[in-house]
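call fold target=Cysteine desulfurase
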Amino acid sequence: MNAEATRAIDWARVRNDFPLLTREVNGKPLIYLDSANTGQKPASVIEATDDFYRRHNANVSRAVHTLGSEATEAYEGARKKLAAFLGVHGDDLVLCSGTTFAINLVAYSWALPRLNAGDAILITRMEHHANIVPWQLVAQRTGATIKVAELLADGSLDLDALHALMTPEVKLLAIAHVSNVLGTVNPVAAICREARKRGIVSVVDGSQAAPHMALDIPAIGCDFYAITGHKMCGPTGTGALWARREHLQAMPPFLGGGEMIKEVRFDGTVFNDAPHKFEAGTPNIAGFVGLGAAVDYLSTLGMDHVATRESELLAHATEELRKVDGLRIFGEASDKAAVISFQVEGAHAHDLATLLDLEGVAVRSGQHCAHPLLQWFGVAATCRASLAFYNTHDEIDAFVAALLKVRRLLL
């Protein structure tokens, strides 16, 4: 999608769709630069969630009355919308609370019954804790080992080293599509293709990809793909796991309870068909109604437009931040999402973030659930400014001006 077509969108009008962005913080207009943590919600998402509770609230798949039918239709409608958004079939999409749950589902239902001592799980240096800790727990219980693929100086994966680590004992590869710290966009289609050649099952963490780019999961060629709804303008407590049908059919349920069964007897239980056998209990119905509205919203904008808009914002922010003396940017891969982690020499990240908040600027500080990555860089914490299509060039300029002011106060 070319930049001229993207500029045809009235981004100021788009921004007005987000009620929270009109508020002030500490007497200053809010500049929200923490979308990698959670995305803001357009009015249509808020209204859809509110409308469900006001007019349709009932449980799903448990009643034949009108409200129950409406709730089920809305919930399953959200599954269909999300499946179309991802380029997959709804019957292969497990609705869950987010990427953390989705990865744990794979860890306990696929990996734990299959891995043994002598097997290995391959991850990368840039993974979020949610794509590290579940595999460590599986390794501890099975005797499998963890292998780690390292990075190049610019924050991109060392692909040659990654491929060299794909040895016969590796049974599973877990990799982020987009780094939540560096913004690095990994070439997951090529990586998953190489893994598949070697009989390695691939799990892709798409939490930071789904909000920023058009996705075609079958084209990626992975075995599992996980997303988080609240990062893509949807409510918290929503997300999904896509899996190849053969995996879903072979995997045992992760949780037991209602909805995931066909028949329960004291001498045994017949489980429901996938994906429902992985969806025990009452789901976050209103949340998924809201996620369906978020998918509608993003689809109307066009994810190619979103990606181009955010690329322009990233370029502007990077250029302006380079003018700040003593500022170091972590992660400068050629293919990068709109995430900038940085440090200012002589200033602690938490102090920067606290003083920026007094200027109305919301950035995240800390280790960003990626301790091994920051250890590799030799730093205790960074600040992270993460952009979304609803941000503006003027906000970026105001952010940099605030950063210069804070720097003068600290140094």
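return ok
The chain has a mean pLDDT of 96. The radius of gyration is 22 Å.
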